[in-house]
Amino acid sequence: xxxxxxxxxxxxxxxxxxxxxxxxxxxxxxxxxxxxxxxxxxxxxxxxxxxxxxxxxxxxxxxxxxxxxxxxxxxxxxxxxxxxxxxxxxxxxxxxxxxxxxxxxxxxxxxxxxxxxxxxxxxxxxxxxxxxxxxxxxxxxxxxxxxxxxxxxxxxxxxxxxxxxxxxxxxxxxxxxxxxxxxxxxxxxxxxxxxxxxxxxxxxxxxxxxxxxxxxxxxxxxxxxxxx
Length: 228
Prior knowledge:
This protein is an alpha/beta fold. The chain folds into two domains: 15-156, P-loop containing nucleotide triphosphate hydrolases (Rossmann fold, 3-Layer(aba) Sandwich), CATH 3.40.50.300; 162-226, Helicase, Ruva Protein, domain 3 (Orthogonal Bundle). 46% of the residues lie in helices and 11% in strands. Strands 2-3-4-1-5 form a five-stranded parallel beta sheet. Helix 5 (107-123) links the parallel strand 3 (94-98) and strand 4 (126-131). Helix 7 (162-175) crosses helix 8 (182-191) and helix 7 packs across helix 9 (196-213). The chain is elongated and about 55 Å long. One of its GO terms (biological process) is DNA replication initiation. Residues 162-226 form the Hda lid domain. Residues 82-154 form the Chromosomal replication initiator protein DnaA ATPAse domain. This is DnaA regulatory inactivator Hda. Pfam families: Bac_DnaA, Hda_lid.
């Protein structure tokens, strides 16, 4: 019996809402789009630093698959009973396990993951995994689990530089129906916290305020709104 988990997907986490800024992503995106096809990859492993887009892509793949998929943020679930979390998950079409490194070193989780991977391989359940390091660099105690983590395709997602963050901000703004001039986007990236998650929160706040005041997103407007 599956454990009832209160895991919500972010509405904006879709594949169409992800800006492809590297050659590696140009290769990866079609593989994600086709993972549930008969010839799709059974296991895809994404690794990279925080704010590299791993969680977005996992949630986006779940959005695309609908009720046939499940997203499990392991950093949030590591205090749960591992066997209960993963029970019967092999019958899903797609299971996305985010932040695998968060549960490594815990014997019960490593054993549960090992047996789940074996069951998933037998049923054909597709797996999309993420961690902060490549499979061979993870602190895995159970050697057999380490080999399972290396079963599929492995892709590295690098962190974004400032120019890429500017492009991402303007892309996100456009998706929200906003016009964010280059000068304003550059000011935000230089002045605001570096984490993309915080930049998205700032953009949402500016969106609400600009709508309320019917004002364009200019540098003076941003300075006044943010109190900078």
